Amino acid sequence: MLQKLIFPLLLPLILFAKESCIDCHQEQSAKCEKSVHYTLSNAINLTRKTWGITDSNVTLQSIPLPKTKIEKPADLVDDFLRRKCLKCHPFNRSSGERGMKRGIGCLSCHTPHQPEGSCQRSSKITMKKCLSCHNKGFVGGDYQGLFPKDHHRSYRAPLSQDGHFPSQKYGIDHHTLISDIHYQKGLKCVDCHKAEEMRGDAKASCTGCHAAPSPTNHPDYHTKLTCTSCHASWNYTAYELSVFRDDTPDYAKWKDLTLQEDGYLTNFLNKALKAKKPPKPRMPDWIERKQAEGIWYSGYRYKRWEHFVLANYDDGRIGIIRPLFQYRISYRDRNGTMILDDVRTIDGKPIEAWIPHAPHTITKKAKSCESCHANPLIMQPYSGENEVLKLQVPQNMIGASPLSSEQIKRMGSVKYKRVRGKMLLRP
Question: Does residue 104 contact residue 69 with C-beta atoms inside 8 Å?
Answer without folding.
Answer: no
